[in-house]
Amino acid sequence: MARNKAFDEIEVLDKAVELFWTKGYNTTSANDLVDGLGLSRSSLYDTYGDKRSLFIKALKRYKHEFADAVITMFQETENVKETISTVLQLIIDQDCHAVNPKGCFIVNTATELSGTDPEIATIIDSNRQDFENAIENALKLGQQKGQISSKQDAKALARYFINTFFGLRVSIKANNNPKILKDIMTVSLSILD
Amino acid sequence: MARNKAFDEIEVLDKAVELFWTKGYNTTSANDLVDGLGLSRSSLYDTYGDKRSLFIKALKRYKHEFADAVITMFQETENVKETISTVLQLIIDQDCHAVNPKGCFIVNTATELSGTDPEIATIIDSNRQDFENAIENALKLGQQKGQISSKQDAKALARYFINTFFGLRVSIKANNNPKILKDIMTVSLSILD
DNA sequence: TTAATTAAGGAACGATTGTTCCAATAAATG
DNA sequence: CATTTATTGGAACAATCGTTCCTTAATTAA
To answer: Over pLDDT 90: what percentage of chain B?
Structure first.
């Protein structure tokens, strides 16, 4: 009866993630989207609704694609400290040689929009909560196994490490000198000794 | 010979700090500035130049008004751990009951602009460096006095604490629940024991 | 073929962006 | 007084913003 969609909605959404991740919400214009997604203005608005709707779809896509992968690492880990170390190193490697560090799409969005857009703030916070739960459970297991010290409360430690991740995303934008980042990583991890 | 300025340039600049601090650079429009500063459009451009110039003046003003005060605290401290604790508590108190946490003007600017504006990136980084030096020296003194452990390198520790400050600014925007923030503070400080 | 749907291109919308400029008024000094 | 500067308000600028809509072409299925 009718023509099929010529483009892969998910594929285009990934391009939107890339654009919003790099430039943020306000600085990414409708024209930037038309150019970057390779869609006509009409198809864009027909398929994804307005700019904000597309942004929220992109943000959720990022969460499922990137953030959830890290959460899974904590859910399946055999060694929490090792996993935390791996995640810190991933964050550093992603941006430490970049001219314009992208940081984390969710952290960027938290600073840009969570103060003014309650729906987006909810997404941000639920992500934070998911991380807290996953890391707390992983830490508890590690403490039971005697892999890490039991001096500190697991929940408090989880919150501490999330704060470390957040901080690293900002530190990288302030100065992505690998030596500085390595220092932060080493000291932050030593809390588990 | 001629009329005097009717408004205090510094006073107006402080209002600009407030506006840019709260809303960021891109979201603060020229009209917002006219309304918020209580100046006519013409006086505004006559006195401060264009929007970006005004923003940079406001950013530098913030640094000298707020950031430098904290740096001085570290330069004059008798007890580093106490001072770090005080600063962490100040950051928390500023925003933990706010509906829209403002965070730190410099951190906000780092995430919004340091990737795209080299001149602003320089201001951000020099501020970071000033903090690093002040905290490192304070930590070294504390180690010499035996007030804190000497296990860790002072410079690495300083970088770690700056990262903690940065993280806290983001954490507060993600969820400013005082319990979460207190956990972060307690665990972060325990590195000195 | 016909009908239905998708896509592209582009014109057009009103609103807002940052910025400039001009005319009028207010205050200070000579 | 006259002159100089400060300040205001508002008009106007071109550019861009997000968004809508219309026309035309392409593709699919009945």
So the answer is: 90
